[in-house]
Design brief:
The chain is α+β, with helices and mostly antiparallel strands. It has helices at residues 2-17, 26-34, 37-46, 49-57, 64-81, 86-109, 168-173, 310-314, 328-336, 348-351, 365-373; strands at residues 128-131, 137-139, 144-147, 151-156, 161-166, 181-186, 192-195, 201-204, 209-213, 221-232, 241-244, 249-252, 256-261, 267-274, 277-280, 285-288, 292-297, 302-307, 320-327, 342-345, 354-360, 379-383, 386-390. The strands form 3 sheets. The chain has an 18-stranded mixed beta sheet that branches. A 3-stranded mixed beta sheet has the order 20-23-22.
């Protein structure tokens, strides 16, 4: 078990250094780097081509079987004494890590057919879907229409919009307070619009979902959001429109606003474009005016409000990447929801570097890469489909 665990992290790190794409392992590598400066120093050392060349020259003389037998002997000896220490596990992990990367680099650089090649990074091609309350799944990449006793909808692939309409006679007689929910979802690399039964327009960003009923109740309109959605709410003074996320409630009568509630972000952002909003975290609440943004911190469960340029936060709906004085980690996460690449931060400090960007989503990734690299605030390398961020080299 110990051998398997150590070998797994070693091979994962080796694949990252060699530029092999493996998005599922990104977090494990980052976690390993965050465990201590010694890990980061080791990664830097092993990632140095000069060091690898020196290592490879002596690799043929290295008896890997004997090396592991020595580690196993020490493990058995420690087990018998019941005195296994963290220091020894660290020694074993580093030894195997060096061996794994050394063997991998030797094999790759001495077998031209397996050498890491330049890998173009492109937009992810994916789909959106509508899951009805009865479990039926509708592929939104095809023109479709559907009607039932409560509602009907039409899927228009040209405008990439679902037009949802209530059956008014059924709605008038529908008294259930426990409404069955439908769910529209977008995969990573896809956005989509839906016009809800009462006329509200919701535009889902990449990797998002919206739960909504076929018919809203007589006194309330309530939906649930994950990811990012831009709303243009149909005004109805008798029925407040409520948006629920895991952390917050947003109440509105008629307005346009953007909600960013991706689970891998440390905060939830609610940006008001027009109208007024009441934002609550189930304890405290704030009222937003146009051009204001409420930021809910998941770490300390607090809400702060600031003035913003709202165009920046709705630009994604026009196919643009627009950032102003934004943290690098947030920019990379946003772009990563559209393009097929992995990323590694060698230094935590790099994540908080703030930069700006204004670029079309249709642009080639090479232009995005050059824009990032030319900022001059950090180092950036591309290995296959993996971007590696580090401190600026002096």
């Amino acid at each position: 078990m110990i051998k398997k665990k150590i070998f797994k992290i070693s091979s994962i790190i080796a694949s990252k250094i060699l530029g092999v794409s493996n998005s599922k392992d990104n977090k494990q590598v980052e976690d390993w780097l965050y465990q201590g400066k010694s890990n980061r120093d080791l990664f830097e050392k092993l990632d140095n081509p000069t060091y690898r060349d020196s290592y490879n020259k002596n690799l043929e003389k290295y008896d890997s079987k004997k090396a592991w037998e020595n580690i196993e002997y020490k493990l058995l000896e420690s087990n018998s004494k019941r005195t296994i220490t963290f220091g020894f596990y660290k020694y074993a992990a580093i030894s195997l890590l060096m061996l794994t990367i050394g063997l991998s680099t030797y094999y790759v650089f001495n077998n031209t057919s397996l050498m890491v090649k330049e890998s173009p990074i492109s937009l992810i091609s994916s789909k959106a879907s509508l899951t009805l309350a009865n479990g039926d799944v509708i592929d939104l990449s095809k023109d479709t229409s559907c009607a039932n006793k409560l509602s009907n909808f039409i899927v228009d692939i040209t405008s990439e919009t679902v037009f949802y309409k209530s059956n008014l006679d059924a709605a008038a007689s529908h008294q259930s307070k426990t409404l069955e929910l439908n769910t529209i979802s977008t995969d990573v690399g896809k956005d989509y619009k839906i016009i809800l039964p009462e006329g509200t327009i919701a535009h889902l960003n990449s990797g998002s979902s919206l739960k909504f009923p076929s018919i809203f109740s007589n006194d309330l309109r309530e939906v649930e959001v994950t990811g990012e959605v831009l709303f243009d709410v149909q005004q109805d003074v008798n029925r407040p429109f409520i948006v629920k996320t895991k952390s917050m409630l947003i109440e509105v009568l008629g307005t346009s606003f953007n909600v960013n509630s991706y689970e891998d972000n440390n905060s939830v952002y609610t940006t008001l474009i027009s109208g007024s909003l009441k934002v609550t975290d189930f304890k405290n609440s704030v009222i937003l005016s146009p051009n204001q943004q409420a930021i809910y911190s998941k770490e300390n469960s607090s809400i702060t409000v600031k003035e913003v340029e709202t165009d920046i936060y709705s630009s994604w709906s026009q196919g643009d990447f627009v950032f102003k004085d934004e943290k690098l980690i947030n920019i990379i996460k946003s772009i990563n929801r559209w393009y097929d690449f992995n990323f590694i931060f060698r230094d935590n400090e790099c994540k908080d570097i703030r930069i700006g960007m204004n670029i079309k989503r249709e642009e080639s990734f090479d232009k995005i890469f050059e824009t990032l690299k030319n900022s001059g605030l950090f180092s950036l390398e591309k290995r296959g489909k993996t971007l590696i961020f580090g401190k600026k080299k002096i």
